[in-house]
Structures are given as C-alpha cells and as structure tokens.
Amino acid sequence: MIQSDADAVVASLNAKEPLTALEKLSPLLAQEPDNGSLWDYQLAALVMADRHIEAEQAFQRCQQLGIAFTETLANACTNAKKLLKPELVLARGKQLEHLDKASGLKWQVEALLELKQGEAAKQAAERLLQIANQGLSCQHLAIQALRMLGDEKSALGIVNRALIQNPADARLTSVRIELCVALGETTKALEIAQQWTEKYPERSSAKHLSSLCFYSQYPSQITVAQRRERAEQFANFVCRDTTPYTNWKNNLEADRPLRIGLLSGDLRSHPIGYFIHPLLEGWQRTQLSVFVYDTLEQGDQLSAQMRPLTAAWHKIKHVSDEEVCKQIRSDKIDILIDLHGHTTGQRLRVMALKPAPVSATWIGFQSTTGLAQIDYILVDPISVPEGAEDEFVEKVWRLDNYFCFAPPQFDLPVGPPPQEKNGYTTFGSLNNPKKITDEMLALWCKVLNAVPNSRLFIKGTGLEKADFRASLQRRLLIHGFTPEQVTLEGAAPREQFLASYQKIDIALDPFPYSGATTTVEALWCGLPVIALAGDRMVWRMAKSILTQAGHPEWVAEDQQAFVELAANLASDPEKLAQLRVNQRDKLLSGPLFDANNYSQKVGASLRRLWADYVAKSMEGV
Q1: What is the pLDDT of residue 134?
Q2: Is 294 strand, coil or helix?
Q3: Alpha helices (H) along 479-509
Q4: Residue 211 in contact with residue 197, Cβ under 8 Å?
Q5: What does the longest C-alpha to C-alpha distance in the chain come to?
Q6: SS3 for 503-548, per residue?
Q7: Nearest-CA neighbor of 358 among 377, 341, 344, 339?
Q8: Residue 407 and residue 520: Cα distance in Å, rounded?
Q9: How many Cα atoms within 13 Å fall on the side-chain side of residue 561?
Q10: Mean pLDDT in each 10-residue stretch from start to end of the chain (621 residues)?
Q11: For a disulfide at 354, which of 244, 275, 327, 399, Cβ 3.0-4.6 Å?
C-alpha cells in the first residue's frame, strides 16, 4: 500500500466522508486482502456510515489479522452499541482496558448499565473515577450506576459536586431535578428547574422544559395560566427546528375503517396499560385498527396480551423522530394519539411534526402539551367543565366519560373495615408519595385531629428507601403528626399492594395532582375515597371518577368540608362495613368497568373527529 493512498483514506475519515473512504478502500483491499491497517480503516468507515453488520464483519477480520489498536476496539464498541449488543460492548471494553484503561472502563460501565448489572457497574464506575480525574462523562456513568442501585443520595452528591465546576450543564441539572424528586423533594426540584430555566434560557433542552411542565402539576400555587405558559415555552423550543407535514395521502372517506396510532411506552403493567387494554379488546369488534409506537420498550405480560390486539407494534426507543414519522405515514395512520404528554418516554416532537392528518393527546398527562400541532385533547365534562378551555392550547373534545378500567386479573377478597378490629380509624393513601405536598399534609393532620385516636397509612414507591422515607417523616413531624400516628410502607407487587387497602378504612385523595388508577383501585377494594374539588384538570380526576362511581358526595368543595366529610364517615362504622359488602359489585356493573360500552363510545368519538377532518378537507378542495 502506497502511503499516499493511506493518507487519502485517513483524510476522508477525518472529513467525516465515510462513503468516499470506502470507495478508496475497495481497490486497496482487493490488492491487499490481508492488510490489517486497511481493515481497521474499513471498520472505521463502516461504523461512520451506519453499516453495522458489515462493520462487525470488518472487526472480525481485524481480529483474525491480529489488529487490536485502541481505535479499533473503540470503533468495535461503538458498533456493538449500535447493534444493541451490550454483551459485546462489555467484552470489547475489557479488551480495550488493557490499552486505554479509562476508555475501556467507560465502555464497560455503559454495557453493565444496559445489562442491568448495577453493582458491577458501580464498581467499574468507582475504578473509573479514581483514574479519570473526575471527568464529567465519567461522573455521569457513576451517577447512572448509583441510580440503578437505588442510591439516589450518593448520586446527588456527585451531581452537586460536578455542578460546582459546571453550573450551566443542562444534563447535570436535569439529573439533579430527577434525583430531588426521587428523594421526595418535589418542591425543591421544581424550584431548581425554574431557576435554571430563567438563568440559562439559551441552554434549555426539550427534556428540561418538558420536566418543568410535568413537575408543575404538583404544587397548587402554580396557576393554570402559568402551567400553560410553561407548556408553550416547551412547544416554542421544540418547534423552532421542526417543519410539520401539511399533506397526507389518506383516503378521504368518512365511513371507511380507520387506522389509529397510539404513541406510548406505557402499554404494560402501568395505569395507561390498565386503561387501554379493555379498549383494545372492545375495538376488536369495530372498524378500528390500532398501531402502537412503543417509546420505552419495557414490555411485560400485559404488553404480550395487548400485542395480538393490534395491527402492528413498532419499537421506536432507538429510532429518530423523523424515521418514526416516516413509519407512521407508511402505516397510513388517520388519527395519531399521544398517551404521554409530558411524562417519561414522551416523543412530543413526533406530534409536532404532525405525521398523521388528525392528532390528539389523551390520558397520560392532564394538562396541555403546549403544541398547537396537536388538534385535540380528549377530556370529559367533569374534568374540564364548560368555561375551562383556556387551560389548553389544543381544542377540547369531551367524551361522555374519561375513564374506564378492567378489574385486576386476580381475586382479592374484600374484608371488613380494620376499624372493627383496631378500635380506631385508619385513613390512608396508596398514591405516588411524590404527590404529597405540604398543603396536603396540613389538611390530613386536621383530619386526624378531628377524629380521635385515628391513624394515617401511606404506601408507595420510594418509601422502601431510607432517604426518601426520612424526608417524608421530617415533613410529617413539621406538620404536627407524631411518629405513632403514621405508618409508611414501600412498593410491592400489584396484588400485595392492593391487599394493603385492607389496612385502611377511608382513602384520602391527593391534591392538586389527584388520583386516577389508585382512586378506582381503592373503590374496587371497598373503600370510600374523599377528594377535594379543584380548579384544573389534573385536580378534577378523582371528582370525575367518583361521579362515575355514583359517589359525588365524597367530593369536598373546600378544606373544611373535607375534614367534616372524613369525620362523618369515620363516625359511621355501619356505612363503612356496608361499603365493603356491596361497593365492588356495584362498581363492576357501572360505567367505570363497562368496557364494551366505553370502547364503542370512544370509537364513535374518534370517527366523529375523522368525519370533521374529512368535511373540512372536502371544503378546501
């Protein structure tokens, strides 16, 4: 090989022109098929060109020829990562460690994280931090490992130290916000997010602004107008480099079978999965074909049950927004429905690109996304009454009912109220403990003061962790609870989790981020649920459910009424006992569990959305 030929190949690679490099390499490899350096260049060019199967073959040839330079192994790690083969990344990272310890350990940590081997990832990350002089990329890997192990406090310590040197780092700030939430400090997380956005507006990211929208659901002090403003700020950021589609090739017939796209990573053992499953079953008897675009790829047994009920199930976690839109257009989706809003796994930029002629957001996030490209938000008349439309950028479309659920797929007996055995009333909440605000704790303390000798039982994800539990215990003490009054329990499998309702006499709904699935589950377990009326959609979820369940009287209009309602129910043991006997049967025969009727009505609403689009399109012809 002439040196000038090699220099020309290297120049093409340095210029990020892999196709040119491959063109120059072809005749050289034909002349010298056993030249290891040429195969090393071939590997680099193929990885750069995203031709990963061929790159893997090139790496194998390098191995055969004894070529294992630092760059060779680094390219091989990159390629294995692109092929979604973390076990290969791990093996090659170990090889690379002998030549470049820091680089090899970084690849090993990444692979171990992907393989869900948290302890091994932590150990590798600790070794990495010792030799890499606390480099930011190394710190991020260590943080990931600690989070996987559930050690959020140690992870936050690394983040805070890293922010001293990198105060404007968006990724570090986002992680700090997430860790504060994981430790039960939601108010602090929201303050950090808002302060950082104001101080570094030019460094904002879509993820950061979306997180700000999500966490704005928690405090009641943030007004409806402020929440919409934050959502619009997110939308402006996302849309600044986005050109939405404006034409579609869908057949403009109003009465033909429709193709519905669901954009969600939560079609699994998750509240969204519990909600959508009966709909998919009901739609088997209609002219609706459902296509799923799975944003998280965390499928489980419930996902496996739902998959055969769909026309297609596309995994898109590692697929670009543009490619996802091409798939949606190829599938000829008529109505694309976002089930995330500003929750984990959201792909709102896909919605902003508007790959389908009609789009809506529904169920995952009870507020506006901020995106004008989304045509509708699906609600009901209770969650969004007349006159409350200003909360949303999207057009409000009211279904008859917002909710419908399938009963749990296990038999869980309903026992008598624990009050009968204990001799005192136990109030409780199995909602996400992150929803617990100081305002809620102050009100719940008034409830316990109004009912002598009563107790509070709180169970939920996070409370199994000492740091999270200690944070909530401190707040409980501040608001006047004694340690003897409160029992805290952590997460559990669903059947065991729901069995915990047998420890509670009366469920207390959180606010302003009210319950939904947990509210229905409490009712299904025979408990009354007391909720506080609110001024926004996310606060009216429980009111909508309780009204559907036939108990609007359990919705208090103000805090004094909330306390009185709790005290009155606690003083009526006969009523509590009767609810345990007959509430589940009444609930199962009512609208909250009438999947056939609900699926028909929702299907009819979707068809009306399509008919409206067809009519408007025909007017413009």
Answers
A1: 55
A2: strand
A3: 494-499
A4: no
A5: 95
A6: HCCEEECCCCCCCCHHHHHHHHCCCCEEEECCCCHHHCHHHHHHHH
A7: 377
A8: 10
A9: 10
A10: 76 90 91 92 93 94 92 94 93 93 88 88 81 71 80 90 88 90 88 87 85 91 94 95 93 94 96 92 92 93 95 95 97 98 96 98 96 97 96 96 87 95 97 94 98 98 91 96 97 94 98 95 97 96 96 97 98 97 95 92 96 89 52
A11: 244
Q: What is residue 191's three-state secondary structure?
A: helix
Q: What angle do CA 112, 346, 197 make, to 5 degrees?
A: 95
* Residues 247 and 225: beta-carbon distance below 8 Å: no
Q: Please, how many CA atoms are within 13 Å of residue 450, restricted to the half-sphere of its CB?
A: 20
Work out the burial of residue 387: count CB atoms within 10 Å of its CB; fewer than 13 is exposed, 13-18 middle, 19 or more buried.
exposed
Q: Which residues of 166-195 are buried (b: 16+ CB within 10 A; e: fewer)?
A: eeebebbbbbbbbbbbbbbbbbebbebbbe
Q: What is the Cα–Cα distance from 434 to 367, expressed in whole angstroms?
A: 18
CA distance 605 to 260: 12
Which among 365, 368, 319, 315 has a CA at the least distance from the CA of 343?
Answer: 365
Q: Read off the tokens for 444.
A: 């719940």
Which residues are 531's β-sheet partners?
555
**372: helix, strand or coil:** coil
Beta strands in 372-425, from DSSP E residues, in sequence order: 376-379, 395-398
Q: Specify the pLDDT at position 79.
A: 93
Answer yes or no: are the C-beta atoms of 125 and 109 closer than 8 Å. yes
Of 357, 351, 352, nearest in space to 335 by CA: 357
HSE (side-chain half, CA atoms, 13 Å) at 481: 26
| Residue 180 and residue 474 in contact, taking contact as beta carbons nearer than 8 Å | no
Residue whose structure tokens are 């026309």 = 311
Looking at residue 216, the DSSP 8-state letter turns out to be T
Give the DSSP H/E element, type plus range, for residue 91.
helix 86-97
